[in-house]
Amino acid sequence: MRFLMMVGVEPGAEAEGESGLTIEQWLAETERRGVRVEGDILARPSDATTIRDYGRMITDGPFADTKEWIAGYDVLDCRDLDEAIEIAALHPMARAGLIEVRPFWEE
Fold it and tell me: Where would I find the YCII-related domain in this sequence (predicted)?
């Protein structure tokens, strides 16, 4: 199953998880398990553009006005949700920020 893992941060959060893994170690673990398809870091919310109403309304900034923001993403290919949660829980930002894991739509 494929999952989108969104990595959220709060301003000033430290990227060190209870697992003790650094981001480099987390990447190595996902490579060892063969579950990370791709991923990247996103620009700050101030660089976002939000499009609504079929392009009739275009505004600078993120979709939601919250203190947390999505800093990056990873696409995981895991056996099931339990494995995706296990991988996400090892990410350093699982303690200092938030991780959302969502399956891709399947018909």
Answer: 44-106
Q: Mean of the pLDDT values across residues 63-77?
A: 84
pLDDT tens digits for range 82-92: 999 999 999 98
Question: CB-based contacts of 10: which residues, under 8 Å, 6+ apart?
Answer: 67, 68, 96, 97
Pair 15, 93: CB distance under 8 Å: yes
For the chain, domains (ranges, CATH) are: 2-103 (3.30.70.1060)
62: Cβ–Cβ under 8 A, 6 or more apart, which residues? Answer: 45, 48, 50, 69
pTM exceeds 0.85:
no
